[in-house]
Design goal:
Layout (H helix, E strand, L loop, with lengths): L1 H6 L4 E3 L4 H4 L1 H9 L7 E6 L1 E4 L2 E4 L3 H15 L5 E5 L10 H20 L5 E6 L3 H5 L10 E5 L6 H14 L3 E5 L9 H4 L15 H9 L7 E3 L5 H10 L6 H16 L1
Parallel strand pairs: 1-2, 2-5, 5-6, 6-7, 7-8, 8-9
Antiparallel strand pairs: 3-4
Helix pairs in contact: 4-5, 9-10
Length: 261
């Protein structure tokens, strides 16, 4: 799969410490050590093994150790390390306590980047709304903010991401889960191809959904999982299509209008 990705010009690889039963780093290094130098590599820390499952923690010491462990397991420093779903540990906290906890976690990742354990750091959030509640102003600004993207993301979450990005002065935005976590039947009932500028040739509905996701919200990269080289080739092909920004704006206005009505 990684060889096929390189043949298609895909040179960015995203993983996380808890993937594959907390073995993703080790398996990558064991099976593809010769290929990894050809990729820019991002990973995530914040989940830890616990009694056969996983627990979430924003403890700065644990995060630092997790970053050091990732580098050892991978055999190289990752290019980007994300704080993985920090909202999981912020639930139920007061805004002040959440602000302090998130700030200490972000400082740990910023320090890791400063110390050469990674080139950049970021925050990967499945739900950005709780992050806005804790007030991110004054916290270290992430180089990258990875968020849910695409036509299946609700307007409340899209708005929360926009507010968060502005308040936090985040650098790049990367999208994830552009197909809504595998809800493929949606694209049998809904055709997103009108979001593309004609001509869009014989692109499929899934290809159109993927391409449009780069605008909901505006993102410079999209993380998507696949174990099929043919599927990956279709997604790469979709990048040649041009999204109709006016249609996207009209869609967002309609979502806002529906929420207010």
């Amino acid at each position: 799969m990684l060889t096929a990705a390189l043949d298609l010009g895909v040179t960015a690889l995203d993983t996380a410490a808890p993937y594959f039963g907390f073995r993703s780093h080790t398996v990558l290094a064991e099976t593809a050590a010769d290929l990894l130098p050809r990729f820019t590599l991002s990973t995530k820390v914040g989940f830890f093994p616990s009694a056969g499952s996983a627990e979430h923690s924003l403890d700065p010491s644990r995060l630092r150790l997790a970053i050091e462990k990732a580098a050892r397991e991978l055999g190289r420093e990752p290019d980007t390390v994300f704080l993985h779903n920090p909202e999981r540990s912020l639930a139920g906290l007061s805004p002040a306590d959440g602000h302090a906890l998130l700030g200490n976690a972000c400082t740990a990742l910023a320090d890791a980047a400063r110390d050469g354990l990674c080139r950049a750091w970021g925050v990967a959030s499945w739900d950005t709304q709780p992050l806005g509640v804790v007030r991110v102003e004054g916290l270290p600004s992430p180089d990258v903010l990875m968020v849910r993207a695409g036509l299946l993301v609700g307007i409340d979450l899209l708005d929360a991401t926009t507010v968060l990005r502005t308040a936090w002065h985040a650098g790049e935005i990367w999208g994830m889960s552009p197909f809504g976590g595998g809800h493929w039947k949606v694209w049998e009932d809904f055709d997103p191809r009108p979001f593309l500028r004609p001509p869009h040739g014989d692109l499929s509905r899934v290809q159109a959904a993927f391409r449009t996701a780069f605008h909901l919200p505006t993102a410079s990269a999209m993380a998507v999982g696949t174990d099929d080289p043919g599927h990956l080739a279709q997604l790469v092909q979709a990048l040649n299509a041009e999204v109709d920004a006016a249609t996207v704006s009209q869609y967002l206005r309609a979502l806002h209008g529906r929420r207010q009505s």
